[in-house]
Specification:
Length: about 120
């Protein structure tokens, strides 16, 4: 079983999430804005997904010019991703010059591309 990679992109008016196991999509979601969520919402969601899949998750937090990702509570005070028994967070900066505009709910190419940048 491939390790699951969850890519999260907080935006001004929504938060996009894509979970993949190897080349296969396991979950995709468009959630409300991160600024309006409970402080533990993202961690609890990731812990639940980890328990459901019975394995720790690799999480890619995409930060950009409008969001540093800190509102999700997945980074420490210095901006480094957190680690727990259920998940490990890597932070990727989404530069405006390389950004691929995401379309409707069905287009997650940009998140797939950013997920591949973790570990480089």
């Amino acid at each position: 079983m491939d390790r699951i990679t969850v890519t999260i992109a907080p935006e001004r008016d929504r938060t996009r999430m894509l979970a993949m196991s190897g080349p296969d999509e396991v979950l995709r979601a468009v959630l409300g804005p991160a600024t309006e969520t409970h402080p533990r919402a993202a961690a609890t969601l990731l812990e639940g997904l980890s328990l459901w899949q019975q394995q720790p998750l690799s999480v890619v937090l995409c930060v950009g010019e409008r969001s540093g990702g800190s509102e999700l509570g997945l980074c420490d005070a210095l901006g480094f991703g957190l680690r727990s028994v259920h998940y490990e967070v890597g932070v990727v900066v989404d530069h405006p010059r390389s950004r691929v505009r995401l379309g409707g709910l069905g287009d997650f190419r940009a998140l797939r591309r950013l997920a591949g940048e973790v570990g480089r």
